[in-house]
Design the sequence.
């Protein structure tokens, strides 16, 4: 009788179980890394919009006037900033929602934002805003907003991110 070469059923089941365990560990980490990448991209693009508005303000002594509330950048804002201060303003954030821009009617303060993965304004996490200063708030939630106000991030992701409660 010849000896058969090959794997036994037990050996194959052990290999499949090991592959399943590795996948169970790797997939959540991969999904988390994708969301962190989206947050970093949104932060960079919000920073680019804010830098363009600040450069415009350096020349014009006023920020581009917005509607006063966060909304997609208006044609006036776009025409003031492009192409001299930024080549193109990114149309949508990594979650396919319009970036937001706001400025006071006098053009003294401005903000730029992405409303994050959940695309909903999270005013409860924005920290404290006053006429002359703000207290930044760092979040650890993938769904929270990313907000630039005047000179820096008012709300930004920092540290280990998780799902919101």
Sequence:
């Amino acid at each position: 009788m010849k000896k058969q070469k090959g794997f036994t059923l037990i050996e194959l089941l052990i290999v499949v179980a090991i592959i399943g365990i590795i996948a169970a560990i790797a997939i959540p980490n991969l999904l988390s890394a994708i969301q962190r990448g989206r947050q970093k991209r949104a932060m960079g693009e919000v920073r680019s919009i804010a830098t363009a508005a600040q450069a415009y303000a350096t020349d014009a002594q006023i920020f581009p006037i917005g509607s006063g509330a966060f909304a997609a950048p208006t044609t006036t804002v776009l025409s003031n900033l492009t192409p001299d201060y930024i080549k193109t303003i990114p149309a949508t954030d990594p979650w396919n929602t319009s970036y937001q821009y706001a400025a006071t009617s006098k053009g003294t303060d401005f903000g730029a934002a992405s409303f994050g993965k959940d695309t909903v304004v999270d005013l409860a996490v924005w920290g404290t805003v006053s006429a002359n200063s703000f207290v930044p708030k760092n979040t650890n939630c993938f769904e929270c907003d990313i907000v630039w106000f005047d000179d820096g991030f008012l709300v930004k992701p920092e540290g280990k991110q998780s799902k919101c409660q």
